[in-house]
Design brief:
The complex is a heterodimer. Chain A is an all-alpha fold. Chain A has helices at residues 3-8, 10-27, 32-53, 69-93, 101-119, 123-141, 148-179, 184-192, 197-214, 223-229, 232-239, 241-257, 263-284, 290-311, 313-341, 357-360, 362-376, 382-396, 400-425, 445-463, 466-477, and strands at 59-61, 65-67. Chain A contains 21 helices and two strands. Chain B has a two-stranded antiparallel sheet. In chain B, helix 13 (305-326) packs antiparallel against helix 14. Classes of the chains: A mainly alpha, B mainly alpha.
Chain lengths: 484, 518
C-alpha cells in the first residue's frame, strides 16, 4: 500500500487506533475522564489529519474507497459531530455506571463506520460501513441495560436494521446479477440497458435499506421508540451522524450509478420525500415527549432533505451538503440542552420538564430558543439558509409541486416548534405540581464549550454562510454530475 | 451607511437593555427610550434638510443608499435605501417606538430587560423592512420582525396569549413562505433570461415575465402582504393578536407592523408585477371595500375595548388597500397619509386601552361607563382620537380617507360609494366607544387616578401631530409624492387615464380640506 493511500485514509486509521487505545485502557482500569479524553483526542487528531489527507486527493484507495473533497467534507462533519457527542456524553454519563470505555470505543467505531460509508464507491465497502455503524449502534442504544425502554429500543433497532441489511444485500445481489459489477460507477451502463427491470428492483431494495437508516416514511416505524428509549447522546448520534453518513453515501451512489438521472428512481425518492414530510410533521403534532417529537421532526427534515436530493444537479448536491451541516449543529444544540438538564436518574424528556427554562437559566433557555428557531427555519439561523437552499434547488429544477409541499409542511412544522418555544417562556405558575421536575441545568466546561460553539455555528451559518458555501461548492463540484 | 447604523444601533440597544436589567428595573426602560429617541433625532436631522432642499436629482431616487455584497454566490447584497416613503415610515416606526416604550413603563413588571430587547428588535426588523432593497434581505427582515413580536405577545400578553401568538405567527409565516417562493422564482426567471443571479430590487424591476408566471408570482407577494395588512379573508389573526398583546406590543402591531403590508404592495407587488397588478386591481379594491364595511360592522359589535380598536384597524387598512390599488396618484398619496394617520390614532387608542386596563383591570366596556367625571383628561384625549378614527375634518385621518375616496371615484364609482358608507360605520363604532366607556352610569363606582403627566404629554403631542398633519398635510404629501409618482412610471400607465395633470396638481396642493362629501 503506497504511503499516499495511507495518508488519504489517515482519518479513518486514527479513529481505528483510538478505538483500540480506549478498549485497551479498560485493561488498566482507566477512569471515565481518561476514556473520554482519549476519545476526544483521537477525534481531534483525525480532524487535523484531514488537512494532510487533503494534500493527496482525489485518490482512489483500492477499488473500494475513494477519497476526494466530497468525502473529506462529510468526514469532517462526522468527526465534528462525533466530537460534540462524546464531549457532551461525559457530563451526561458521569455517575450512571462505573465504567464507560466500551461506550466511547463504540462511539468511535460507529463514527468509523460512517467514515467508511462516505468513502465507499463499491457495494462491498458500502455494506461494511453500514454494518460497522449499525452493530455499534445496537449496543449503544441498549447501553443503559437496567432500563427496559433502552433494551426495547436496542432490540427494535437490531431486528429492523438486520432486515434492512438483508434487503441491501439482496439488492446488491440483483445488481450484480444484471450488471456483473459491484463498483458504483461500473453499474451505470446497465441502468440504461434494455433489461433494466432487475436492476431497478435491486436499486429499490437498496433504497429500502437506506430509507430505513434515514427513517423516511414508510421505513420510519422504529424512529420514535428508538429515540425515546436510548440514552440522549446516542439519540443525538443516531439523529445526526448516522444519517449524515448515509446521506453522503446516497448522494454519491445516486450520482455514480446514474440513478440521479433516472426518472423512476427520482420519482420514488420524490414520493418518499412527500410522505416523510407530511407524516413526520402530522405525527409530531401529537407528541408530548420531546424525544419522540424530535424523532418525528427529524423524519420530516429528512423528507425536506430528499427534496434537495431529488432536485439534483450541482445545486442540489450543494443544498444537501449545507442541509446536513446545518441540521447537525441544530440538532446537537437541542440535544445538548436536553443533556444538560438530565440527571442520571431521570431524563428531561417531557415537554413540561422544560417549563420556564428561560427564567430558570436564561443562557440555556436562549440556546434552546435559538436552536428550535433554527430547526423551524427562521432567518439569521442556519435553518433558514437550509430552507432557502431547498427552495432554490427545487425551483431551479422546476419541481414546483415538491416545493409547494415543502412550504406547506414548514408551516405545519411551526405548530410544534412553537410549542417547544412557548413552553420555555412559561412563567413559574403558582401551582407547582411537579416541583421535582423543575430541572436545573448543570454546566461543566466541556458542555459549555460545545454548546457555545454550536450556537455560534448556528448563527454564523445563518448570518454569514459564504465561507462555508465555498467549501461545499468545492465538495459538490467533484461529483461527476452530468450536464443535462 | 446611516441606514445600516440605524438598524445596528437599535439591535445593540436591545442587547444592552437586556443585559442592563441586572443594574435595576429602570435601566432597560431608559435605555429603550434613549435608543429610540436618539435614532429618531439622528435620522431626522440627517434627512430632513435633503427633503426640502432642491438637491434631490431625479436620476437617483434614493435619499440615502448603502450597499455591500453579503452572499455573492447568489447575488445577495446588503442593499439598503430610503426614499420619501421609506423615510416617513421609519419616522413613524421610531415615533411609535417611543410611545410604546412610554406605554410599557408601568405595565411591564417582569422580565423587563427581555421585554425591551424584543421591543427594540421588532423596531429594528421593521426599520429593516422599510429600507431593504434586496429581496432576500427584505425577506430576512420580514421574518425577523416576527419572532420578537411573537415573544412579546406570548410572554407579556393577556389571558389567551398563547393562542393569539401562535395564530399570528402561523398566518404571517404562511404568507411569508409563499412570498419566499415568489422571490426565488423571480430571481430564477431573471437568471434564465440574463444569466445573472441577483436579488437586487432595482435589477429585478426590469424583468419581463410571461403573463401567467407574472400573475402567480404577484399572487405570492400579495398573499404575504395581504396577511399583514390585513385584507379581509386573511384577517382572523388580527383581532386576537391585537387584543392579547401587551400595550406596547399592540401599539407596534397596529401602528407599524400592519403598514409593512401596505408598504410591500407599494414597493414590491405593484412595481415588480405591474401588468398582473393591473388585472388584479379590481379584486384587491373589492377586498378593500369589503374590509371597510366588514370591519366597521364587527367593530360596532364588540364589547372589548381593544377588540373594537382592532377591528377598526381592519376598516382603516381597507381604505389603504383600496387607495393603493385604485392606482391614481391621489389615491396612493391618500393611502400613505391614511397609513401615517392610522398609526398615530390607533397607537394612541391602544395606549389608552392600556391605561384603562391598568387602572380598571378590565377591557370590558359593559363594566365601564360614567368614567368622564372620574378621569376627565383621559376621556378628553380619547374623544379626540376616536374623532380622528371617525375621520373628522381637521385631523390627519380625514385627509387620507378623503384622498383615497377621491382617487377611487375616478376609477370606480360604485366602490367609492360603498367605501363612503364605511365612513358612516366608522362614526358609529367610534361614538359607541366613547358612549359606553365614558358616558352613562358609573355602575361599578370606579375611582381611579387620571392620566399621569408623562402619558398626558405623550398623548397630547400625538394630538398635536395629528392636528398639524390634518390642517397642513402639504409637507407630508410632498415627501411621499416622488415615491408614489415613481411607482406609476415604473409600472404600466395608471388605470385611470382620464386623470389629467392639471386638476391633480390643483387638488394635491390644497392645504386645507375641502368640504366633506358625506
Amino acid at each position: 500500500m503506497p504511503v499516499h493511500d495511507i495518508i488519504a485514509l489517515l482519518p479513518a486509521l486514527i479513529l481505528a487506533g483510538g478505538t483500540l487505545v480506549v478498549v485497551l485502557g479498560a485493561a488498566w482500569n482507566c477512569s471515565h475522564g481518561m476514556a473520554s479524553r482519549t476519545t476526544a483526542i483521537s477525534q481531534v487528531l483525525a480532524l487535523t489529519s484531514l488537512s494532510l489527507a487533503s494534500s493527496v486527493i482525489p485518490r482512489p484507495v483500492t477499488s473500494l474507497l475513494l477519497v476526494d473533497e466530497f468525502t473529506l467534507f462529510y468526514t469532517a462533519l462526522i468527526l465534528i459531530g462525533g466530537l460534540g457527542v462524546s464531549l457532551l456524553s461525559q457530563g451526561y454519563l458521569d455517575g450512571t455506571l462505573d465504567r464507560h470505555n466500551e461506550y466511547y470505543a463504540l462511539i468511535l467505531l460507529a463514527s468509523l463506520g460512517g467514515l467508511v460509508l462516505v468513502m465507499s464507491v463499491h457495494g462491498a465497502s458500502f455494506f461494511l460501513g453500514l454494518e460497522l455503524l449499525s452493530v455499534s449502534l445496537y449496543v449503544l442504544l441498549a447501553y443503559r441495560r437496567d432500563e427496559p425502554r433502552a433494551l426495547e429500543a436496542g432490540i427494535k433497532y437490531l431486528l429492523l436494521s438486520a432486515a434492512a441489511s438483508a434487503f441491501v444485500l439482496f439488492g446488491f445481489a440483483l445488481l450484480y446479477f444484471s450488471s456483473g459489477e459491484l463498483a458504483f460507477a461500473a453499474m451505470q451502463p446497465s441502468l440504461t440497458k434494455a433489461g433494466r427491470t432487475v436492476f431497478l428492483v435491486g436499486l429499490a431494495l437498496i433504497l429500502t435499506g437506506i430509507g430505513f437508516k434515514l427513517a423516511v416514511v414508510p421505513f420510519h416505524l422504529w424512529a420514535a421508540d428508538v429515540f425515546q428509549g436510548s440514552p440522549l447522546p446516542v439519540t443525538a448520534f443516531i439523529a445526526t451522524i448516522s444519517k449524515i453518513a448515509v446521506v453522503g453515501l446516497l448522494l454519491r451512489a445516486l450520482v455514480h450509478t446514474g440513478g440521479s438521472a433516472d426518472e423512476a428512481v427520482i420519482a420514488t425518492l420524490g414520493i418518499l420525500a412527500v410522505a416523510s414530510m407530511f407524516l413526520g410533521n402530522l405525527l409530531a403534532l401529537l407528541q408530548e415527549n420531546v424525544k419522540r417529537l424530535l424523532a418525528y421532526s427529524s423524519i420530516a427534515h429528512l423528507g425536506y432533505l430528499l427534496v434537495a436530493v431529488v432536485a439534483g444537479g450541482a445545486l442540489g448536491a450543494e443544498a444537501v451538503g449545507f442541509y446536513v451541516a446545518a441540521y447537525m449543529v441544530t440538532m446537537l444544540g437541542i440535544f445538548g440542552v436536553l443533556m444538560l438538564l438530565s440527571r442520571p436518574s431521570m431524563e428531561a424528556e417531557q415537554v413540561e420538564d422544560l417549563a420556564g427554562l428561560l427564567w430558570r437559566d436564561p443562557l440555556v433557555g436562549a440556546i434552546w430558543v435559538i436552536a428550535v428557531l433554527s430547526l423551524a427555519g427562521v432567518p439569521l439561523t442556519a435553518g433558514f439558509v437550509i430552507k432557502f437552499y431547498v427552495v432554490v434547488a427545487g425551483l431551479s429544477s422546476d419541481r414546483w409541486l415538491l416545493v409547494l409541499f415543502f412550504v406547506v409542511n414548514s408551516v405545519i412544522g411551526l405548530f410544534y416548534y412553537l410549542k417547544l418555544i412557548r413552553i420555555v417562556l412559561v412563567r413559574e405558575s403558582g401551582s407547582s405540581e411537579r416541583p421535582m421536575h423543575a430541572m436545573i441545568p448543570r454546566w461543566n466546561w466541556s458542555d459549555g464549550f460545545v454548546l457555545a460553539s454550536l450556537i455560534l455555528a448556528i448563527i454564523g451559518l445563518g448570518v454569514y454562510p459564504i465561507p462555508f458555501i465555498d467549501v461545499i461548492e468545492q465538495a459538490a463540484a467533484v461529483l461527476p454530475i452530468g450536464t443535462d | 451607511m446611516i441606514l445600516l447604523l440605524l438598524i445596528a444601533f437599535l439591535m445593540l440597544g436591545g442587547l444592552i437593555a437586556w443585559v442592563s436589567e441586572r443594574l435595576g428595573p429602570q435601566w432597560p426602560r431608559w435605555i429603550a427610550l434613549g435608543t429610540t429617541v436618539v435614532s429618531l433625532c439622528t435620522i431626522g436631522l440627517d434627512t430632513i434638510p435633503h427633503l426640502f432642499g432642491d438637491v434631490v436629482p431625479s436620476s437617483n431616487p434614493w435619499l440615502r443608499e448603502f450597499t455591500v455584497p453579503w452572499i455573492p454566490r447568489f447575488g445577495i447584497g446588503l442593499h439598503l435605501a430610503m426614499d420619501g416613503l421609506g423615510f416617513l415610515l421609519i419616522v413613524l416606526t421610531l415615533t411609535l417606538g417611543i410611545v410604546a416604550a412610554i406605554a410599557s413603563w408601568t405595565e411591564i413588571t417582569s422580565g423587563i430587560g427581555f421585554f425591551h430587547f424584543n421591543l427594540l428588535w421588532v423596531l429594528a426588523g421593521i426599520a429593516g423592512v422599510f429600507v431593504a432593497m434586496d429581496l432576500f434581505l427584505f425577506f430576512v427582515f420580514w421574518e425577523l420582525m416576527l419572532v420578537p413580536m411573537y415573544l412579546l405577545i406570548s410572554i407579556w400578553g393577556h389571558e389567551r396569549r398563547s393562542y393569539a401568538a401562535t395564530k399570528f405567527f402561523l398566518f404571517t409565516q404562511a404568507g411569508g413562505l409563499l412570498m419566499l417562493i415568489s422571490i426565488l422564482a423571480l430571481s430564477i426567471v431573471h437568471y434564465r433570461q440574463t444569466g445573472v443571479t441577483t436579488f437586487d430590487y432595482a435589477v429585478l424591476l426590469g424583468t419581463s415575465l410571461p403573463p401567467e408566471t407574472e400573475f402567480w408570482l404577484m399572487l405570492g407577494f400579495f398573499a404575504a402582504f395581504a396577511v399583514k395588512l390585513p385584507a379581509v379573508p386573511l384577517h382572523p389573526w388580527l383581532p386576537d393578536a391585537h387584543t392579547e398583546a401587551p400595550t406596547g406590543g399592540s401599539i407596534i402591531l397596529a401602528g407599524i407592523l400592519l403598514k409593512t403590508g401596505a408598504y410591500g404592495m407599494l414597493r414590491f407587488a405593484i412595481p415588480l408585477f405591474p401588468n398582473a397588478s393591473e388585472t388584479f386591481a379590481i379584486v384587491a379594491m373589492t377586498l378593500g371595500v369589503v374590509g371597510i364595511l366588514y370591519g366597521a360592522l364587527l367593530a360596532f359589535a364588540q364589547t372589548d375595548f381593544k377588540r373594537l380598536v382592532a377591528y377598526s384597524s381592519v376598516t382603516h387598512l381597507g381604505f389603504v388597500l383600496l387607495g393603493i390599488y385604485a392606482g391614481t396618484l391621489h389615491a396612493r398619496e391618500g393611502a400613505i397619509m391614511a397609513m401615517i394617520a392610522h398609526g398615530l390614532s390607533t397607537g394612541a387608542l391602544f395606549m389608552i386601552a392600556g391605561v384603562l386596563q391598568e387602572r380598571l383591570r378590565t377591557r370590558d366596556m359593559r363594566r365601564m361607563g360614567g368614567l368622564w367625571p372620574v378621569v376627565p383628561k383621559l376621556s378628553g384625549v380619547t374623544l379626540v382620537f376616536s374623532m380622528a378614527s371617525l375621520g373628522i375634518p381637521g385631523l390627519a385621518n380625514f385627509i387620507g380617507e378623503f384622498l383615497v375616496l377621491l382617487g377611487t371615484y375616478r376609477v370606480n364609482i360604485p366602490l367609492a360609494v360603498l367605501a363612503t358608507i364605511g365612513v358612516v360605520g366608522a362614526a358609529l363604532y367610534s361614538l359607541i366607544l366613547i358612549q359606553r366607556t365614558f358616558h352613562g352610569e358609573n355602575t361599578e363606582n370606579w375611582k381611579v387616578p387620571d392620566l399621569r403627566g408623562v402619558q398626558f404629554a405623550t398623548l397630547g403631542s400625538m394630538i398635536l401631530v395629528s392636528l398639524t398633519l390634518g390642517l397642513y398635510p402639504q409637507p407630508l404629501l410632498k415627501i411621499s409624492k416622488p415615491a408614489v409618482a415613481r411607482i406609476q412610471t415604473w409600472g404600466s400607465p395608471p388605470p385611470a387615464q382620464e386623470t389629467s395633470a392639471v386638476p391633480e396638481k390643483d387638488v394635491s396642493d390644497r392645504a386645507t380640506p375641502s368640504p366633506p362629501d358625506r
